[in-house]
Specification:
The protein has about 525 residues and is mostly helical. The chain has helices spanning about 5-15, 20-50, 75-80, 90-100, 105-120, 125-130, 130-145, 155-165, 175-185, 190-195, 210-225, 230-240, 250-265, 280-290, 290-300, 305-320, 325-345, 350-355, 370-375, 405-435, 435-450, 460-470, 480-515, and strands at about 350, 385, 395-400. Strands 1-3-2 form a three-stranded antiparallel sheet.
Length: about 525
């Protein structure tokens, strides 16, 4: 620092930077930020009159940080030139924001300071000024785009997202900004470094919004589609589609359209929407994406003529939505899934028979033989061509399924993933079940809510009746497996009945205890 003493130096000297990050963050929050807040308000008073709430002699720790902190240029320059961004992350964020706000820094200087800060910063301090942190990240995106070098924003945004949470499980203000920027620049592999981490915590107090959550998973689904990782793409699009909200948003509708196409490519059929929200959401999707529903039903008929007719009717919709390329992949997948079905019926089949059934609707795809060779190379089928003599027909022989060591390891990995997810869901269910707000809400809602669904009070009879009515106006209404649906509904009813009994027992025990001791609002209760 400079040799001449300054008020800022006095505060910095009172902070012990040799201690743990948690303690340093506490000191920054108790000493430095209130000091900068006080200086900011005093400057406001000098320029606009004494209408602020900061008065001389006010204790620093008593000031709230709700007032916008725009520190002086002298303080900002001293922080950036003389301090470590890891030690004073919060001050660096405020300093860069102040210089940018007062237009006292060039675009190149701004990006250089921001990159240095986000290369290694304290996430706990960033949370102290999280609104300014979000504005900083947005400014990085806007300025890099403005100067025609959007690629300069990728590394800082990725560092911000990865370092915000040590275990990468918390959704940060950088998540959506980075993924959307990476998609636009087609840096799919780089984006996968962030998308491969499961986000489990979404906290609105961290300057993130519901829209950020939707866009993150929507762009993530697009990126995984580009990487040909269709299972992950389905997962991300499903998260967007099943997010609660009414009416359904434009982002959710677009995700539903792409989910249909991806499911057809990957599975040859579409699946029922996860029932996490009220049931009129699924009906809204079917209406808003009706051409896609028709396309899916035509695909599932396994009739080339029907599919070709529907394709001619809807390809303009796909072009308008930007999904024409995916639509072409669906047509190719139609050919592939017809060949896959043969594997379930025959041990071997003549190539000329396959060629008779195989129809290239657009007449610009690979030949049947080359299509099959590509499927073998991609692992879609386990087969090989055979010909006994030059005069005998070529035969495609399907190999019996063999449980190789690699497949065993893949299955074990999937089982471990399912086990971990189940454990997390069970833990979350226990925490929510013990929370006071949850118990009171369930008790106040009455018996109907306890025995009904969590989506909006509709029971299964209402749901099935609505689907039947909707099906009367939709020739391509999806067919459901009635036995599986009834089984799932019965399982859910038993789970709700068991949960209701646990809640009633808990409340009964708690009421008996409250007769002798007053309810002190134990801190163990989790806030919903």
């Amino acid at each position: 620092m400079s040799q001449s003493s300054s008020p800022l130096q006095a505060v910095l000297l009172s902070i012990d930077f040799t201690d743990s990050d948690e303690i340093v963050t506490s000191q920054v929050g108790d000493k430095l930020l209130p000091f900068l807040q006080l200086r900011s308000q005093q400057q406001q008073q000098q320029h606009h009159g004494s209408h602020g709430n900061a008065k001389p002699g006010t204790k620093l720790s008593s000031l709230s940080l709700s007032f916008p902190i725009v520190i002086s240029l002298a303080d900002a320059e001293e922080i950036l030139q003389s301090t470590d961004p890891k030690q004073l992350t919060a001050a660096w964020i405020l300093a860069i924001h102040a210089l940018l706000h007062k237009k006292s820094i060039s675009n190149d200087e701004f990006l250089a300071y921001s990159s240095r800060l986000l290369n290694d910063f304290s996430s706990s301090q960033a949370v102290l000024v999280v609104d300014h942190f979000r504005k900083l990240l947005i400014s990085i995106t806007l300025i890099s785009n403005k100067i025609g070098k959007p690629i300069l924003s990728l590394t800082p945004l990725l560092n911000a997202a990865l370092q915000f949470s040590p275990n990468h499980q918390t959704f940060s203000p950088a998540h959506q900004l980075f993924v959307s920027q990476a998609f636009k620049l087609k840096h799919y592999r780089l984006a996968e470094r962030l998308l491969s981490n499961d986000v489990e915590k979404f906290d609105a107090s961290l300057a993130v919004t519901y829209r950020d959550h939707l866009l993150y998973h929507y762009y993530g689904g697009l990126i995984f589609t580009g990487l040909k990782k269709l299972d992950k793409a389905k997962e991300f699009f499903s998260i967007v589609v099943s997010a609660p909200g009414h009416p359904v948003s434009y982002i959710q509708t677009e995700a539903y359209k792409k989910l249909i196409l991806v499911q057809l490519i990957r599975n040859g059929k579409i699946s029922r929407i996860p029932r996490l929200d009220v049931d009129y959401s699924s009906q809204s999707f079917k209406i808003l994406a009706r051409p896609y529903e028709h396309f899916a039903r035509a695909f599932e008929t396994d009739d080339v003529t029907v599919l070709q007719t529907v394709w001619q009717q809807i390809n303009e919709y796909l072009t308008t939505d930007g999904n024409f390329g995916l639509g072409l992949q669906v047509l190719e997948a139609f050919r592939k899934h017809r060949i896959i079905k043969l594997q379930k019926i025959f041990a071997s089949v003549r190539l000329d028979y396959i060629e008779e059934r195989d129809v290239d609707i657009l007449n610009d795809g690979p030949s049947t033989r080359n299509l099959i060779l590509g499927m073998i190379a991609d692992g879609m089928i386990d087969a090989k061509f055979s010909q006994q003599s030059s005069s005998s027909p070529v035969t495609l022989k399907f190999q019996p399924a063999v449980l190789t060591e690699s497949r065993v390891r893949a299955l074990e990995d999937k089982l471990n993933t399912v086990r971990v997810v189940n454990e997390k869901l069970a833990g979350l269910d226990r925490e929510i079940g013990r929370s006071r707000n949850f118990l009171l809400k369930r008790l106040q809602s009455g018996h109907l809510a306890l025995s009904g669904t969590s989506g909006g009070g509709l029971d299964d009879n209402d749901y099935d009746e609505d689907n039947a009515k909707f099906g009367q106006t939709n020739d391509f209404q999806l067919d459901h497996d009635d036995e599986l649906l009834v089984s799932a509904n019965n399982d859910r009813r038993r789970l709700e009945s068991s949960r209701k009994l646990r809640i009633e027992n808990f409340l009964s025990t708690r009421n008996r205890s409250n007769r002798s001791t007053s309810d002190d609002g134990s801190s163990d209760d989790m806030e919903l």
